[in-house]
């Protein structure tokens, strides 16, 4: 796959290029956007990553004009916009002007790679038909057949959808497919990330309402328009906040914090959670009325160990994706069978990351069991040294030290109790208070 990056920040360009090269793809970047049409003609990229804000014009108008020029000259070239979290309005305008998708700074590499891979795959097939989109959910197990059936029904009817499953099972992928299959596909899909200021992020606020709030802040409910809004970890929200959100969903109106003006809500709603809703309903962490309003359709994605029959299919699927890059590898059938018996606690995400590591580090074209074992041992390391991994370990240690007293745990970590529960939900940490 050939990827072109257009951004006036050389550091961003070089970082993205290294990311794509590490995955076996070809990547080039351009600093001066004025030459972009000529560069596209000579390089012939499969996907374009386009920053909307250039130093000569931070309003985004230049970026939008470049997008329109590119779309007019190369209509079939997928364009993924790069925008800051505070300029999501530009992303919405960009989607209307012909962009295929967008990412916000700072992005997660895994999410970005998934978006690029999706756009490349859709371009290869020529059309994003319903069947093509459903086939992105790989697996022939009964659980995956049911997931595709329910997803198809939910998207065609625009029913509200609740997706549950452990970390790494594919909730964001399923949410993306639901969005792309529905009537809102040409509009943005925005996700509320883990935030200690949920109300401020959703409702927005007027200048001067909070200490240090020197300017108005537009919340997601203002920015989303008629797109889909995905919110995770509902069960970590207080009962009062859940009640407020239920009122917004049912009345389709909200008021910006610090304002008396009521505004309409026209978006669709998506809910995701690491825990099965039944567990949260039983403990009272999730309001029953909110759940039944948001879960007209509920899809639970099981752990990989619970659908082991899908492993060979997933391994072949990811292998084919990796072979689309410069580094080609071939897995022996015995290697696929052996790998299908291995445990991946991080589910599909960990399996994919493991195969990417093998493709990157192995010098062998034909991969047998002996070769795979080298990298499986390295992957199965005792500690996760990523920032998220260290944060997760800190929370688990604090819970153990404070013997499960969550108020003391939150105090030790220097965060609010609600923020602690959100982080626990994010990392899949289960503990009864």
TrEMBL record:
One of its GO terms (molecular function) is ATP binding. InterPro entries: AAA_lid_NorR, CheY-like_superfamily, Homeodomain-like_sf, HTH_Fis, P-loop_NTPase, Sig_transdc_resp-reg_receiver, Sigma_54_int, Sigma_54_int_dom_CS. The keyword Zinc-finger does not apply. Residues 137-360 form the Sigma-54 factor interaction domain. Residues 2-120 form the Response regulatory domain. The keyword Transcription regulation applies. This is Two component, sigma54 specific, transcriptional regulator, Fis family. It comes from Leadbetterella byssophila (strain DSM 17132 / JCM 16389 / KACC 11308 / NBRC 106382 / 4M15).
């Amino acid at each position: 796959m050939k990827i072109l990056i257009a951004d006036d920040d050389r550091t961003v360009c070089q970082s993205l290029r290294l990311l794509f090269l590490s995955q076996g793809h070809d990547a080039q970047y351009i600093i001066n956007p004025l030459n972009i049409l000529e560069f596209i003609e000579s390089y012939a990229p499969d996907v374009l990553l386009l920053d909307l804000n250039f130093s000569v014009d931070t309003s985004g108008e230049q970026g939008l004009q470049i997008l329109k020029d590119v779309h007019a000259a190369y209509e079939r070239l997928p364009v993924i916009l790069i925008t800051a979290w505070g300029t999501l309005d530009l992303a919405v305008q960009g989607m209307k002007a012909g962009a295929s998708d967008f990412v916000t700074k700072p992005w997660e590499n895994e999410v970005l790679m998934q978006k690029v891979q999706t756009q490349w795959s859709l371009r290869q097939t020529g059309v994003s038909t319903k069947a093509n989109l459903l086939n992105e959910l790989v697996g022939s197990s009964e659980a995956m057949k049911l997931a595709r059936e329910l997803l198809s029904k939910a998207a065609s009817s625009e029913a509200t959808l609740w997706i549950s499953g452990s970390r790494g099972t594919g909730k964001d992928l399923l949410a993306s497919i639901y969005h792309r299959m529905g009537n809102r596909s040409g509009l943005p899909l925005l996700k509320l990330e883990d935030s200690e200021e949920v109300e401020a992020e959703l409702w927005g606020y007027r200048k001067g309402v909070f200490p240090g709030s020197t300017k108005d802040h537009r919340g997601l409910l203002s920015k989303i328009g008629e797109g889909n809004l995905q919110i995770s970890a509902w069960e970590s929200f207080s009962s009062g906040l859940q009640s407020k959100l239920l009122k917004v969903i049912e009345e389709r109106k909200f008021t910006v914090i610090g304002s008396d003006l009521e505004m309409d809500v026209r978006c669709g709603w998506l809910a995701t959670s690491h825990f099965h809703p039944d567990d949260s309903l039983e403990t009272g962490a999730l309001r029953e009325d909110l759940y039944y309003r948001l879960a007209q359709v509920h899809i639970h994605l099981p752990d990989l160990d619970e659908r082991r029959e899908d492993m060979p299919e997933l391994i072949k699927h990811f292998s084919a994706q990796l072979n689309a890059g410069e580094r080609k590898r071939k897995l022996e059938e015995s290697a696929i069978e052996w790998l299908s018996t291995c445990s991946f606690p991080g589910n599909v995400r960990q399996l994919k990351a493991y195969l990417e590591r093998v493709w990157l580090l192995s010098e062998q074209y034909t991969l047998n069991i002996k070769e795979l074992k080298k990298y499986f041992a390295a992957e199965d390391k005792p500690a996760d040294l990523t920032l998220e991994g260290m944060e997760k370990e800190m929370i688990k240690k604090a819970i153990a030290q404070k013997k499960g007293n969550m108020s003391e745990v939150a105090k030790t970590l220097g965060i609010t109790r609600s923020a602690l529960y959100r982080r626990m939900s994010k990392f899949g940490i289960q503990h009864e208070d």
